[in-house]
Design a protein that fits this description.
elongated; mainly alpha; 144 residues; Recoverin, domain 1; two-stranded antiparallel sheet
């Protein structure tokens, strides 16, 4: 009889312990969760090899919107069409990302430019502090 009364108490205690463990095992911030997601080698830093550019819900990845002829690159003409639709800030980002000045953006150039914008201390890694700083809203919102 005493055993039957003890079972619910033990179950509640076990569930409380499991819930506490699950909560404390979660990263403390969104930036920490993102670092954990991207960090493949477990060093709490994101290297250029681990870094991935988000496609933000686009069909085929980060080039799909601008690459209108489907050749896998974004030409200056294709980018100009996108600029006309979006805003002037896109051309500034294009020129910064076109690392070899060939008027085309490759996936690697896009990845490198995005990584460089996040890696504020230029140490070749993105840490949680840099990622958190990048997620703060800008002072002046870009036009959409």
């Amino acid at each position: 009889m005493k055993f039957i009364k003890l079972v619910p108490i033990l179950m509640v205690s076990a569930m409380t312990l499991l819930a506490t463990t699950a909560v404390t095992a979660q990263p403390s911030s969104k930036a920490d969760r993102m670092i954990n997601h991207l960090d493949k080698d477990g060093d709490d830093l994101v290297s250029i090899d681990e870094f991935q550019v988000s496609s933000r819900g686009r069909e085929r990845g980060s080039l799909a919107t601008a690459d209108r002829d489907g050749d896998g690159n974004v030409s200056r003409a294709e980018m100009q069409a996108q600029i006309d639709e979006r805003s002037e800030w896109a051309i500034e980002r294009f020129e910064l990302a076109d690392l070899n000045d060939d008027d085309f953006l490759t996936e690697e150039e896009i990845k490198t430019a995005a990584f460089s914008r996040l890696d504020k201390n230029d140490d070749g890694y993105i840490d949680a502090e840099e990622l958190s700083a990048a997620r703060k809203p800008p002072r002046h919102q870009r036009p959409s």
